[in-house]
Amino acid sequence: MFGRRVTLFKILGFKVQLDVSWMFLAVLVTWSLARGYFPAHYLGLSDSTYWWMGTVGAIGLFGSIVFHELAHSLVARHYGIPISSITLFIFGGVAQMEKEPPSPKAEFLMAIAGPISSFVLSAASYLAFQVGYQVQLPLSAIGVLGYLAFANSLLGGFNLIPAFPLDGGRALRAGLWHWKNDLRRATRWASMAGSTFGFVLMMAGILHVITGDFMVGVWWFVMGIFLREAAAASYYQMIARTMLGGEPIRRFMTPNPMTVSSDLSLNEVVEEHFYRSLHDIYPVVENSRLIGCISSRQIAGIPREQWTRLTVRDVAVPCSKDNTVGIDTGALAALSTMNRTGNSRLLVLDGDHLVGIVTLKDLMKLLALKLDLERVD
Q: What's the N-to-C CA distance of the chain in angstroms?
């Protein structure tokens, strides 16, 4: 779902990240507010004032989305659900759960916490708007408060639509889960609702384009595509969590992995290993002792004329939690590490000893086999 992410800060123990796609949204929101919304609702101000209002409004929207996702995360923490990060992306924000909720009640309360927080923030903004009007604050400040009241009510209302993975869809899943006592089936039905709503948004977008409202139409169409893809991805993510969660990595790692000697030149390791075996990371050994690893990503950052002069020892990096897992690590945890770091291969360690290597392809093959053999609907 996400591309490149930048960590902004931590709040209450949760890491807040920004997907690069949110930069597009920030520019679009600022432009829309400065050139459309504020000039239409608050007449007679200068262009520079409208741009300042647009900028502050976009920052306020940013804070509102963080507040919304923080509400989800706090409830999740109460129920023992690890939240790895809160990520802001082009269509809003998401709290990254590392496991499924333990019960329908936990799912429901976590789902509605977000919209409730948005409505509370909307009410607070509206109250500030009214007070500001009474004490005659500058029109620009009143305008931004009014916008935040509107934006948060819209954010809360939209998320209540019963279309998974929106908050309303998660509340729907909680109800179906409670009714059928089957998380997998409840998730599938809620995902179908999300996919259907996404299709409706796409059709509405096409209708807007046909009737001449091009910008709104394109936005709705893209949102519809995203929601359909997110619904399907969320369903299979749940399947992965439930089916891989208890599988230890030792069951499907490749034992005795290929290693490279620390005294090889970079040119030799590229020609004799990377180009032949097509792996993107290798353990580095020196006198049969694991001293680190070397990846294609590292070598790609070194000028080619230096490949014959530098050895693997010169550029190898120590093993870390980003490229290694313990032998008793669960498959889902390994998959999470791959997703977080972008590494498709992880070294498997038993204490300080290298015992194997696991690849993303191995994990996907295991999941495909379980889906086939256990006949997931």
A: 23
